[in-house]
Amino acid sequence: MDVCNINNVQKRFSGHNKWSKIRHVKGVKDLERGILFTKLSKEIQLAVKLGGSDPGQNVRLAAALASAKKAHMPKDNIDNSIKRALGQTKADSIESITYEGYGPGGIAFLIETLTDNKNRTVKDLKHFFAKAGGSMSAVSWMFNKRGSVQFNHGSTQDTLDKMMDNAIEINGVEDIQELDDDSLEIICPSPSVNVIYEELTTKYNYEVIRMSSGYIPTSTIKLNEDDKDLMEKFTRFMNNLNDHEDVIKVHNNAE
């Protein structure tokens, strides 16, 4: 791997840019707990259906459980989500669907959802786009898909510099970014996420906080922040998406 590439400043996931969430961090403080827990429950159910109920053998489930724990999701909720996925109680079919479109100001959006009713979801999203003066349309060609792994020192006493030096040696790592909570984030090809998770947790004893896939725009559009009407539409559109219980991640190419 080209170590010089690690030191290059690369654009973070579009989901991390300043327009990715009008509110601050999307979490318990900013969304109703019920909506957040519904999102987490769906992710747990999908992870179990795709890879089984053993987090030791299912990396996606391990990441989902870590997110649930971080959000203080009750253990009963977590257990019930796993049981529903295993068919021990009645479960709706959860689907992972990504929707695309142009929002206010011609900004391109990719919206990742987990839904048990895709007709309801697409109807709601079409309504949001229409109210914002946009429309649903193919825009995925404007983004490159990448994986993301966020981790901290875990049970070690390693400094951020030491953690970064170790992470650089892992095959598939393209970029490493320091975050505000004394953790690091690795950017990598999506297929490398599981391998990197295993290396971080088994070889270095680090704690993986979050794993995900995201989209990096090939080009960006600068929003005119002096345009009050545009900014109001954009804010309302983003908040509608963030509040929808089926929406898991929102990516855009706004600068």
TrEMBL record:
Matching Gene3D superfamilies: 1.10.10.200, 3.30.70.980
Limits of the TACO1/YebC-like N-terminal domain: 17-87
Family: Belongs to the TACO1 family.
Compartment(s) where it occurs, according to its Swiss-Prot or TrEMBL record: Mitochondrion
Origin superkingdom: Eukaryota
GO cellular component: mitochondrion
Domain TACO1/YebC-like second and third: residue ranges: 95-254
Protein name in the entry: Transcriptional regulator TACO1-like protein
Species of origin: Rhizophagus irregularis (strain DAOM 181602 / DAOM 197198 / MUCL 43194) (Arbuscular mycorrhizal fungus)
InterPro entries: Integrase-like_N, TACO1_YebC-like_2nd/3rd_dom, TACO1_YebC_N, Transcrip_reg_TACO1-like, Transcrip_reg_TACO1-like_dom3, YebC-like
